[in-house]
Amino acid sequence: MRFRHPDGSTVHLAYCTNVHPAETLDGVLAQLRDHCEPVRRRLGRDRLGIGLWLARDAAHALVTDPSALRGLRTELEHRGLEVVTLNGFPYEGFGAEEVKYRVYQPDWADPERLAHTTDLARVLAQLLPDDVTEGSISTLPLAWRTAYDQERATAAHTALTTLAERLDALHELTGRSLRIGLEPEPGCTVETTRDALAPLTAIGHDRIGICVDTCHLATSFEDPHTALDALAQARVPIVKSQLSAALHAEHPHLPEVRAALAAFDEPRFLHQTRTLTAAGLRGTDDLGEALAGDALPDDSPWRAHFHVPLHAAPAAPLTSTLPVLRAALTRLVGGPHPLTHHLEVETYTWQALPPELRPRARAQLVDGIAAELTLARDLLTDLGLKELP
Asked: Which of 202-226 are b and which e, b meaning 16 or more Cβ less than 10 Å from the residue's Cβ?
């Protein structure tokens, strides 16, 4: 979906296909047929943006077989879909029964991460629509915080610098300008936007910036205006923003609130949980840890890294951090000029919701994704953006 900003520039809105896990190119093609095109039709649109997730094997197949890449582009066009952004965070196995810490491997100190992201860039340069010259890729925020020493930090810095040089060369070769955004996430070396300032300033290349995920922003209790102003002041490019909402519990000391939270403690994904105290941010790596005993103080609100559907906040006594998303979006695209032109709805946890909230059929998932995109569209038009055909 495309929108015209009052300054005349185009803002792209997509939804991320990591909600439909697929490890192979055939799986990706099936996603387009079974999910993405039906979402477009459900919205009554001639064109729909998708934030494509390509696992390692799918990306490698495309970059080593030009005919396969041409075929994917043709399939996108045939189904009324367009790609200006990729989700390069998960490397493989995102549809496994247990993902948890595996999603952070390989990290940016490992050569595999550089090789995979280079493949993604080469693929995206060929998938961009003819009238679009700028693409974006979100990626792991360096590494999970453990076992990340100075040696690995140096290796990560070198890898990202090498990537920037490759993107410069790709721009010269294809005319397509691609940028990479580190996506701060609780528990990682770069947990907050503030944590991103030092490494990104050290790299000092405009092709390496940040991806602002509004669920992660909220989970870490970051104020959107303060965070985004700091990025602007540091001249860190906001490559893209993922529109998502976290799980919020206002009174975690109450037994009924604990019981409601426990329904979201599931085995597939990591749900880092945070609370803001007078002494600063406190947290656990997973929701189950927070609920067990006194791992976290419970006299102030808790937020958990659980991407809840944008249009459907959990039932009381829980809620979502949709207000944080609204505030961030206002700052991102509500001013005289957009701080980013790439927006991506990223609710990958539909099948990890409590059983009674999960879509039971493909059509229900299509309806849910369409409802999320409709909400995002309405937020954008309320900010003065005009939806384009």
From this structure: ebebebbbbbbbbbbbbbbbbebee
For 207-223, the DSSP string reads TEEEEEEHHHHHHTT--
What are the angstrom distances between the C-alpha of 218 and each of 88, 229, 248? 22, 16, 9
Amino acid, res. 5: H
Structure tokens at 201: 């300033």
Beta strands in 62-206 (DSSP E): 81-87, 134-139, 177-182
Q: What is the pLDDT of residue 293?
A: 81
Question: What are the E-state strand segments in 33-91?
Answer: 48-52, 81-87
- What is residue 5's predicted lDDT score, i.e. its pLDDT? 98
pLDDT band at residue 21 using 50, 70 and 90 as cut-offs: confident
State whether residue 353 is helix, strand or coil: coil
pLDDT in tens, 206-224: 999 999 999 999 999 999 9
Asked if 228 and 190 count as a contact pair (C-beta separation under 8 A), the reply is: no
pTM: 0.97
Paired tokens of 303: 């937020």
**Taking Cα atoms as reference points, which of 4, 247, 272, 269 lies closest to residue 145?**
272
For residues 212 and 193, the answer to whether their CB atoms sit within 8 Å is yes
Answer yes or no: are the C-beta atoms of 69 and 76 closer than 8 Å: no
Residue 151's pLDDT band (cuts 50, 70, 90): very high
177-190 pLDDT per residue, tens: 999 999 999 999 99
**For residue 359, cis peptide bond before it (omega within 30 degrees of 0):** no
Strands of 273-277's sheet, edge to edge?
A: 280-284, 273-277, 302-308, 245-249, 318-320
